[in-house]
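Hi support team,

I submitted a single chain yesterday and got back a structure, but I'm not sure I'm reading the token output correctly. Could someone confirm the output below corresponds to the sequence I sent? I've pasted both exactly as they appear in my results page.

Thanks,
R.
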Amino acid sequence: MKKTLMVAALTGVFATAAHAQSSVTLYGLIDAGITYTNNQQGHSNWKATSGSVNGSRWGLRGSEDLGGGLKAIFTLENGFNIMNGTNGQGGREFGRQAFVGLSSNQFGAVTLGRQYDSVVDFLGPLALTGTQYGGTQFAHPFDNDNLDNTFRVNNSVKYTSANYAGFKLGAMYGFSNEAGGFADNRAYSVGASYNYGPLNVAAAYMQLNNVGSATNNVSGAVTTDNTPFVASRQRIFGGGINYAFGPATVGFVFTQTMLDNATQLTNVGSQGAGNIALNGDSMRFTNYEVNGRYNLTPALSIAGAYTYTDSRIEGEKPKFHQFSLQTAYALSKRTDVYLQGEYQHMTDQEGLPVGAVINGVGMSSNGNQVSATVGMRHRF
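Hi R., thanks for writing in. Yes, this is the structure output for that exact sequence:
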């Protein structure tokens, strides 16, 4: 009897210890607002919006301690529209992220699944469109550099290093999964960052091959319902710097997106004009963003950015000037309200079927667009 009681007691101790070494966390964010646009395809518009700053989501994140500084990790993250309850990212159950892997305190992490690329991971946090201080509507035209993560990469294997005295690096490869077509709809990226006190610098590069077209490999790295472009090759590279002093942070981000044999531009991230056919020429977007944010009080913040985009579309040279401003007030650690606005002015479109386009709002019928949103975010 005593032995039975002892075994039962020890079993309970070991079960408790094993349980303490594993964890699963439910988390999420809900962003709901009302947006006014002065010109959406020729009309003013008031509409209820979901994710004007940060996409609404819920997810599960877990880890298991395997000993020796090694852990098994996973993330399953769903994106949804709070206004109608539907799934985002083409209706996927876990469209934002879905991966599993191993993480080492000494060497970093290797993960497999549907994941963010290195441009999003390393350069995104330095641009306001990649943060809580601007998000969706602060994106560069058409989110051409993916800093607002319009698309994720399927079939991907990713390595992210540990933090070595402020230095981190990473790389990702997205398989085409096509027999006899290894490069047909594949993606790869690399990135690095360095943090030294108030200074943050980062750089990243990404290349996509044969993505976007419904006639191409639809089971590859990036699918048609994600990317705003159809081209034989898309290359994105850039760098950025942020510097914090006291309650203020200022930054600069440069990116360039180059497309070969571009045949279609899709207003994916803009809920608007649909597909725009192109003649197969090369296309280019060069973005310069100057940004800053300031905490007026522990609860009240203000942030703003100016982005100049010099582009080449169908032999023409349209230019985009975007001014963006946000203020947010924290009601608690998990809930805040915000007010933000954007103005975009486009010049030299020369008859192109492209107007001013504030991300998440819709394309205008001319070269000017104004948008304003009042909203609320709750995190859990």
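A quick pointer for reading it: The CA atoms of residues 163 and 240 lie 19 Å apart. Let us know if anything else looks off.

Best,
Support desk
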